[in-house]
UniProtKB/TrEMBL annotation:
Subcellular compartments: Membrane
UniProt EC number: 2.7.1.107
Family note: Belongs to the eukaryotic diacylglycerol kinase family.
This protein's record includes keyword S-adenosyl-L-methionine: no
Pathway per the UniProt entry: Lipid metabolism; glycerolipid metabolism
Name of this protein: Diacylglycerol kinase
Domain of life: Eukaryota
Region feature Disordered, mapped onto this chain: 338-363
One Pfam family per UniProt: DAGK_cat
Organism of provenance: Characodon lateralis
Claim: Zinc is one of the keywords in the record: yes
Length: 363
């Protein structure tokens, strides 16, 4: 690192070879050939820590994450933990979308899913990408064990603290995510393509159409110290980015004097409700938006019954108790693909050719 020039910003690459079918593995091999192999890490082999440790004394570097939203969140979480040990505390992050939803990659113009783009072109796109800031949120899950055993032993479950980049949902959308997650865990070999994954997701949704829960009766919502009454909904979602459920615009684009236009760096979360599976399907088809409920920077939820929740696509059942969402400190730096590069990528897919950037050597 002492030999690096002031204008040099090397690239640290994390690849999840289990994402995107075999495409993740192919990218891992390709980047190891194009770059110094010490810059390219298989994230399933020990996580992001090894790569960040290798780059800990590099004064300036960028990160490329090849994987789904969960993989990106994994890198962001570990980076948050070890940031104080890095000379470059806020390396900006680019994405090659290998997951099913890829909502964060979509809003940063990296696309809905990797479709075999030349790795040379990916490196050129990262080189020319623009830096943007994005909010990140801390969620305190202060769930209390109110079982009889818990009461007898005066036992309270310790609070769990997690970080959120994209969205946090309770109710029906989390329930679908949980069912999909369990199905994938049972037969992981069948979940190797985005097309198949979405088909399973639709099937799970159809099975839930006759089932409903009155989520508004099980939750109390407070936004920036104000009590907010909930309409008759089955799902409640807190959005940090304007893409949800594989690219759907849940908040909607219609102007509304009650709310500010959503941004990824405005220190505000959008609070939206859905009435059920049919409503979710309409949102994902672009026919409707969700029900706008509130905007705010501090959320407090009181949950009276166990409820399915999902955080950036990772689902679980949350016991009764309190949930608090607040800003997670400094904004994170992301890389957004330039519009020119986005147009060139589309042209390449349509059959045009483009020579690799002469600036690839700077990586």
């Amino acid at each position: 690192h002492k030999k690096l020039g002031d204008d040099v910003s090397p690239l640290l690459v994390f690849v999840n070879p289990k994402s995107g079918g075999l495409k993740g593995r192919e990218l891992l091999y390709s980047f190891r050939k194009l770059l110094n192999p010490h810059q390219v890490f298989d994230i399933t082999n020990g996580g992001p820590l090894a790569g960040l440790h290798t780059f800990r004394e590099v004064p300036r570097f960028r990160v490329l994450v090849c994987g789904g939203d969960g993989t990106v969140g994994w890198v962001l979480g570990v980076l948050e933990t070890v940031r104080h040990k890095l000379v470059c505390r806020e390396p900006p992050i680019a994405i090659v979308p290998l997951g099913t939803g890829n909502d964060l990659a979509r809003i940063l113009r990296w696309g809905a899913g990797y479709s075999g783009e030349d790795p040379h072109h990916i490196l050129a796109s990262v080189d020319e990408a623009e830096e943007v800031q994005m909010d990140r949120w801390t969620i305190l899950l202060d769930a209390q064990d109110i079982s009889e055993d818990g009461k007898d032993n005066c036992f309270l479950e310790p609070p769990k603290i997690v970080q959120m980049s994209n969205y946090f949902g309770l109710g029906i959308d989390a329930e679908l995510s949980l069912d999909f997650h369990l199905a994938r865990e049972d037969e992981p070999d069948k979940f190797t393509s985005r097309f198949h994954n979405k088909g399973v997701y639709v099937k799970v949704g159809l099975q839930k159409m006759s089932h409903g829960r009155s989520l508004h009766k099980e939750l109390q919502l407070q936004v920036d110290t104000k009590e907010v009454p909930l309409p008759n909904i089955e799902g409640l979602i807190f959005l940090n980015i304007p893409s949800w459920g594989s690219g759907a615009d849940l908040w909607g684009s219609e102007a509304d004097v009650r709310f500010a236009r959503p941004r990824i760096d405005d220190s505000l979360l959008e609070v939206v409700g859905v009435t059920g599976v049919v409503h979710m399907g309409q949102v994902q088809s672009g026919l409707r938006a969700g029900i706008r409920i509130a905007q705010g920077s501090y959320i407090r939820l009181t949950v009276s019954k166990p409820v399915p929740v999902q955080l950036d696509g990772e689902p679980w059942i949350q016991p009764p108790g309190h949930i608090i969402i607040s800003a997670a400190g400094p904004k994170i730096r992301m890389l957004r693909k330039s519009k020119l590069k986005q147009k060139r990528s589309a042209a390449n897919r349509d059959g045009c050719s483009e020579s690799p950037s002469s600036r690839d050597g700077r990586h």
